[in-house]
Design brief:
Elements: H1 4-11, E1 18-19, E2 30-40, E3 43-49, E4 57-59, E5 69-76, E6 79-86, E7 90-95, E8 103-104, E9 116-123, E10 126-132, E11 137-142, E12 150-151, E13 164-166, E14 173-180, E15 183-189, E16 197-198, E17 209-217, E18 223-229, E19 234-240, E20 248-254, E21 257-262, E22 268-272, E23 275-279, E24 287-290, E25 295-300, E26 306-310, E27 316-320, E28 328-330, E29 332-333, E30 336-337, E31 341-351, E32 354-355, E33 372-376, E34 381-385, E35 393-396, E36 403-404, E37 418-421, E38 426-429, E39 433-436, E40 443-444, E41 458-461, E42 466-469, E43 473-476, E44 483-484, E45 498-501, E46 506-509, E47 513-516, E48 523-524, E49 537-540, E50 545-548, E51 552-555, E52 562-563, E53 577-580, E54 585-588, E55 592-595, E56 602-603
Antiparallel strand pairs: 1-32, 2-3, 2-31, 3-4, 5-6, 6-7, 7-8, 9-10, 10-11, 11-12, 13-14, 14-15, 15-16, 17-18, 18-19, 19-20, 21-22, 22-23, 23-24, 25-26, 26-27, 27-28, 29-30, 33-34, 33-56, 34-35, 36-37, 37-38, 38-39, 40-41, 41-42, 42-43, 44-45, 45-46, 46-47, 48-49, 49-50, 50-51, 52-53, 53-54, ...
The protein binds calcium ion (3 copies).
């Protein structure tokens, strides 16, 4: 039996962020999802967000074919299916670890040489994918998690240009597509694809109605569909409440309709060319917001948070957190324009907010230079490489579920490896001490709060904003969603309680200062960049921007890198540096590049 906390920890590791089993806290809830699109740099695009779309990271390097990817469904925050174009047979990819690894499913013998456009899953082992072109279409089905696939397309629909699919349960599935016999195709099966019924009741065959590109079922009775008229002149939304016997027109607009997502029977979001529309009263009233041309994908988790993606004239990701009143548009990632994006899917389950691993010092051998330090959460293996080329210290300390909490606990000038065990509140400082302080859900925030030269065990409790420093103080400062940033602004005095609020860029140091620096999704990286005192600074994960307050702005690193500023030269000045998990690269700006860790090794702090 695997350790459940470990499983949860490992399954939610993503480049740039670590998510811990902490209470959601006040404020916005966080969700994880993916968007997919055009091939670039030799492989299809899959972007992942674990913070509700504030930051995105590309996945699948070395794992994906050089094909455009078109359809994605997030079953839960760790599990997703992606489909795309054919490179001999249609592309189907699956992840169960949050996208760290993507595995191709199906074989050339099972999957036709057709471009796949949409994928859906009711959860469990059932997955449906549709696609094709004017000449041939396919309805692919697996009931065993992708081990075997079967084409369930009924005779006579091979030229239906199937593009929409939704399955509310393992037996029920709707598939939609182009025009056949003068009106759009809606097929439904209630026996997992063994038999199909074409649905034409109500408004399906209104004059001019031509195709239905998107369908979203709430259950086997209630479903929503979006389509377009001849020549894509107008879009329309249909709804059924009787399992599809009758479909009734809900609303319509200009240009083509592309995708629809029904959160429940009341809340529905829809994407059409240049418009995002939504209802929260089951279709009685609709609101809308202009978007870019070819808004192809839409996903939502409730009536507040939704995401949309566009394909052309430029790739972009749209995000609202206030029910559509305002939208944030992301057009560039890593210093480049986004590729064209087809669909987006966020899992309905919440994920913990992003947290920050805090340590108090990185000089483990006391030579005055910060050292490279990585650990492996799976088994508590540490590797500390004194900079730049000395032999690394490798040892096991702590185990699954523990969090690094290094500091100079005995005050001898060398950083002591340490771990905090949330399950029990154990602090274990290697060769120094073991003690209990804090409890499950707490974040270790070791620092020298008393100013006596020795690191003090301390915790931040996101659920209440409590800071508790062992033997020193207790205070309430900050709240859930804030990243704890204990900092010594002068570089000479005791550490102060401080937070960075990623949603707004707020920095607050208790009794010292309060200001805004940075933008939503930035990561706090305070360090002694000028050599005197501590500069407040942020790292922007999507672009590699370092903004150091009052000093400079520069770009160093790539999307997915962990910022690792430190005094690696021993000159008393911190340098921007990054750790790249994909390769184990440690790059210190203007100083060195070396390779330590990689794979499932994480930096000890960030
Ligand atoms: Ca050192
Ligand atoms: Ca020490
Ligand atoms: Ca102290």
């Amino acid at each position: 039996m695997k350790n459940r906390f470990l499983s949860a920890l490992l399954l939610t590791l993503t480049p740039g962020w670590l998510f811990l089993a902490a209470p959601a806290g006040a404020g916005l809830e966080y969700f994880a999802g993916w968007t997919v699109g055009e091939s670039r740099d030799g492989y299809g695009t899959i972007l992942r967000s674990s913070d509700g779309g504030r930051s995105w990271f590309r996945q699948g390097v070395g794992q994906l074919a050089d094909v455009d990817l078109a359809g994605v469904v997030a079953v839960d925050p760790d599990t997703a299916w992606v489909v795309g174009k054919s490179d001999g047979y249609g592309a189907i990819y699956h992840t169960t670890d949050g996208g760290r690894t993507w595995t191709r499913k199906g074989t050339a013998g099972e999957i036709p040489d057709l471009d796949l456009t949409k994928v859906t899953s009711p959860g469990g082992k059932t997955v449906w994918a549709v696609g094709g072109d004017v000449g041939a279409s396919t309805i692919l089905h697996t009931a065993d998690g992708g081990r075997t696939w079967h084409d369930r397309i009924p005779d006579g629909y091979e030229q239906a240009e199937l593009q929409g699919v939704s399955a509310p349960d393992p037996e029920t599935v709707w598939v939609t597509g182009g025009s056949l016999d003068g009106y759009p195709v809606i097929l439904k099966s209630e026996d997992a694809g063994a038999t199909w019924t074409r649905q034409s009741g109500g408004d399906v065959a209104r004059p001019g109605y031509h195709h239905i590109l998107g369908i979203s079922a709430v259950d086997r009775e209630t479903a929503w569909a979006i389509g377009g008229t001849i020549a894509s002149a107008d879009w329309f939304i249909l709804k059924t409440s009787d399992g599809g016997e009758t479909w009734n027109l809900q609303t319509e607009g200009a240009h083509d309709g592309n995708e629809i997502h029904a959160v429940d029977a009341e809340t529905v979001w829809a994407a059409s060319d240049s418009t995002i529309s939504w209802t929260t009263d089951g279709g009685l009233t609709w609101s809308s917001h202009l978007s870019y041309e070819y808004t192809m994908g839409i996903s939502a988790v409730d009536s507040r948070q939704a995401w949309a993606v566009t394909y052309s004239w430029k790739g972009s990701i749209w995000r609202t957190e206030d029910g559509g009143a305002s939208w944030t548009v992301l057009e560039r990632l890593g210093g480049r324009d986004l590729p064209g994006l087809w669909t987006v899917s966020f899992a309905p389950q919440t994920v913990p907010p992003p947290l920050r691993l805090v340590v108090d010092g990185k000089d483990y051998n006391g030579d005055g230079r910060d050292d490279v330090a990585v650990w492996r959460p799976a088994d508590g293996r540490w590797m500390i490489a004194p900079h730049p080329t000395a032999r690394p210290r490798i040892f096991h300390y702590g185990g699954p579920g523990d969090l690094p909490a290094s500091g100079d606990y005995d005050g001898d000038g060398t950083t002591d490896p340490a771990v905090f065990r949330p399950a029990s509140g154990l602090w274990a400082v290697r060769g120094v001490t073991r003690l209990y302080y804090g409890k499950s859900g707490d974040i270790p925030v070791p620092a020298d709060y008393s100013g006596n030269g020795r690191t003090d065990p301390a915790i931040f409790r996101p659920s209440s904003g409590l800071w508790a420093v062992r033997g020193v103080t207790r205070a309430y400062f900050g709240a859930g969603g804030d990243l704890p940033v204990p900092v010594d602004p002068s570089g000479e005095g005791p550490a102060r309680v401080g937070i960075f609020r990623p949603s707004s860029g707020l920095w607050a140091v208790r009794s010292v200062t309060r200001f805004y620096f940075g933008a939503s999704g930035d990561y706090p990286v305070p360090a002694a960049y000028s050599g005197s005192g501590r500069e407040f600074a942020v790292f922007r994960p999507g672009t590699g921007l370092w903004a150091i307050r009052g000093l400079t702005r520069l770009y160093f690193g790539a999307p997915g890198d962990y910022p690792q500023p430190g005094d690696y030269s021993g000159g008393g000045t911190s340098l921007p540096a990054v750790y790249r998990p994909s390769t184990g690269l440690w790059a210190v700006r203007g100083l060195t590049r070396s390779y330590w860790g990689g794979g499932d090794y994480l930096p000890v702090s960030w």
